[in-house]
């Protein structure tokens, strides 16, 4: 297998943690994509993923799979017992529910804020940031506030259970963790009163899979 990504970025991190959790990290060839240079927006990469995003997983038969959720689903169910996406129908439903919330209430808002209300990754990506839209900075700032509200939500969740989707570490935890790292990079701090979320972040950072890819 091959993974097209950029080390250190939040979505590539999500797949790298999933690979490490499944014991597959050493079985993958990583192909670096130059995000600041907008390589992912050029024809060669768009032929791999028309949406122009990383990461992308290439299977040995040549199939390309993009989107972190889809890649994690494949890895978790193809190799050994599922452990990140739920085992029973109920577990699967809860994991997917919480994972959707992790994206919509935290990870995605942070990304929107970063790309539209900050300098982002530099001049190379400016043509892809809708610079003509006068309201994009204000919209990005609203998304920052949404991300902070998401942090408060997950703090409440984690006051009641050890992991985002319940008793077991799952892809929902991976996405919240990556979202928080991205938030830190974008200078969106976790509120100090979110003590459960902060403790959870410290706990997850100590997982062997996370240490492996950090």
What does this structure look like?
The protein is an alpha+beta fold and 214 residues long. The chain has 2 domains: 2-78, Glutaredoxin (3-Layer(aba) Sandwich); 89-207, Glutathione S-transferase Yfyf (Class Pi), Chain A, domain 2 (Up-down Bundle). It is built from 8 helices and 4 strands; from the N terminus they run βαβαββαααααα. The two termini are 21 Å apart.
The topology string of helices and strands comes to EHEHEEHHHHHH
Gyration radius from CA atoms, angstroms = 17 Å
Number of domains: 2
Average pLDDT reading = 93
Question: Helix count?
Answer: 8
Please indicate the percent range of residues in DSSP E strands (runs of 2 or more).
5-15%
Topology-level CATH name of the largest domain: Glutathione S-transferase Yfyf (Class Pi), Chain A, domain 2
Strand order of the largest sheet: 2-1-3-4
Q: How many beta strands in the DSSP annotation? A: 4
Largest sheet: 4 strands, mixed
């Amino acid at each position: 297998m091959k993974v097209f990504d950029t080390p250190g970025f939040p979505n590539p991190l999500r797949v790298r943690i999933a690979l490490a959790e499944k014991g597959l990290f050493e079985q993958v060839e990583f192909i670096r994509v130059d995000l600041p240079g907008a390589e992912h927006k050029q024809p060669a990469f768009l032929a791999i993923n028309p949406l122009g995003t990383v990461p992308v997983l290439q299977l040995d038969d040549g199939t390309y799979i993009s989107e972190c959720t889809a890649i994690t689903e494949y890895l978790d169910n193809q190799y050994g017992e599922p452990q990140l996406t739920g085992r029973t129908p109920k577990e699967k439903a809860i994991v997917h529910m919480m994972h959707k919330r992790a994206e919509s209430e935290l990870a995605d808002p942070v990304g929107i804020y970063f790309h539209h209300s900050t300098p982002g990754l530099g001049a190379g990506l400016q043509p892809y940031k809708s610079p003509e839209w006068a309201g994009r900075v204000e919209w990005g700032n609203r998304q920052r506030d949404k991300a902070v509200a998401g942090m408060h939500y997950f703090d409440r969740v984690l006051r009641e259970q050890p992991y985002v989707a319940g008793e077991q570490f799952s892809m929902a935890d991976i996405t919240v963790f990556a979202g928080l790292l991205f938030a830190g990079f974008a200078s969106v701090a976790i509120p100090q009163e979110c003590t459960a979320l902060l403790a959870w972040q410290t706990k997850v950072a100590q997982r062997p899979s996370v240490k492996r890819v950090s």
